[in-house]
């Protein structure tokens, strides 16, 4: 849709914005992830250092999934050998997402703006695209750069071969992402021979570079996205082409967890009953939303004996 309202009048909470410029040679996507990001972290109590890095991954995954013309999901994963060993974001084409992370006691938990080389160390970034219909695609690249945005820009250079500029900022309350990208030419190839397209992308990239400072990062975290985009690009025939809501989701359920437990078999479940952090229960905690599901001995017996009946919808959890 085409928006004619002023930047101050546009929605800002949990929104994705697609925008373009008068030439039609560069496209952009920006996200503001607010209430849903607070919801995503409620069951996990992420330390500030983890929340910052994971929030940047959320913003990155959402702007990237918005550049794909497909129905399905995109999975962004960083796995390293540092104090943060895992960051995972699953973003769907309907702009819903879920997240998980793993970290150790060695983490300097309260320090912000640490290098990903310190937090993640050596490791791999995996980008997986799973269309609802079609072939699953995965790309694995080493973790490079000092920030999540730098690592992903390296991926675009190597794998997509599309000139791309990405800025990310996050804390425990908000995650923001801004991506500009040269539009592919005929046959899906970058317009590398089109001098005007290259010049425009270089010009817009310089404007985005103003966010790549401590003051710029603070502005990115605190300024409503429509206002921020107007400040950056008001002289470049900026126009919004689509505005869509973002939400946190998790598909876990008591029935689904019960089906998973059934696959473990009697011996393992009986062992779990006697060796659980919740006495005399098999206790399972969803790694994405933090919901805990508890099954007592009666529940376990029903799971094992009656495969035609879903686990009871008890309220013990």
TrEMBL record:
Gene Ontology MF annotations: protein folding chaperone; unfolded protein binding
GO CC aspect terms: cytoplasm
Entry keyword Nucleotide-binding: no
Pfam families with a match to the protein in the record: HSP33
Family annotation (InterPro entries): Heat_shock_Hsp33, Heat_shock_Hsp33_C, Heat_shock_Hsp33_N
CDD domains given in the database record: Hsp33
Keyword tags: Chaperone, Cytoplasm, Disulfide bond, Redox-active center, Zinc
Biological process annotations from GO: protein refolding
Protein name according to UniProt: Hsp33 family molecular chaperone HslO
Species of provenance: Halothiobacillus diazotrophicus
Organism ancestry: Bacteria, Pseudomonadati, Pseudomonadota, Gammaproteobacteria, Chromatiales
């Amino acid at each position: 849709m085409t928006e004619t309202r002023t930047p101050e009048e546009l929605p800002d909470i949990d929104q994705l914005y697609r925008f373009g410029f008068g030439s039609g040679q560069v496209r952009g996507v920006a996200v503001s992830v607010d209430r849903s990001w607070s919801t995503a972290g409620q069951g996990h109590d992420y330390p500030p250092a983890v929340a910052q890095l994971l929030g940047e991954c959320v913003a990155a995954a959402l702007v990237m999934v918005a550049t794909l013309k497909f129905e399905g999901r995109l999975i962004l994963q960083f796995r390293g050998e540092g104090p943060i060993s895992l960051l995972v974001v699953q973003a769907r084409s309907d702009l819903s997402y879920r997240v998980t992370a793993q970290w150790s006691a060695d983490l300097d938990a309260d320090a912000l703006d640490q290098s990903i080389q310190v937090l993640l160390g050596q490791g791999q970034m995996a980008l997986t695209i799973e269309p609802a219909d079609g072939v699953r695609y995965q790309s694995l690249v080493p973790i490079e750069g000092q920030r999540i945005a730098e690592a992903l820009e390296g991926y675009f250079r190597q794998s997509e071969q599309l000139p791309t500029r990405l800025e990310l900022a996050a804390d425990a309350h908000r995650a923001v992402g801004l991506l500009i990208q040269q539009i592919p030419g005929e046959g899906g190839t970058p317009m590398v021979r089109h001098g005007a397209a290259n010049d425009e992308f270089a010009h817009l990239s310089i404007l985005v570079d103003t966010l790549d400072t401590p003051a710029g990062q603070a502005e990115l975290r605190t300024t409503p996205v429509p206002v921020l985009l107007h400040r950056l690009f008001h002289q470049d025939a900026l126009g919004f082409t689509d505005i869509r809501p973002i939400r946190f989701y998790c598909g876990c359920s008591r029935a689904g967890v019960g089906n998973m437990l059934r696959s473990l078999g009697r011996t393992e479940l009986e062992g779990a009953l006697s060796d659980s952090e919740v006495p005399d229960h098999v206790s399972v905690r969803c790694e994405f939303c933090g919901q805990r599901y508890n099954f007592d001995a009666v529940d376990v017996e029903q799971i094992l004996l009656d495969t035609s009946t879903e686990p009871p919808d008890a309220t013990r959890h």
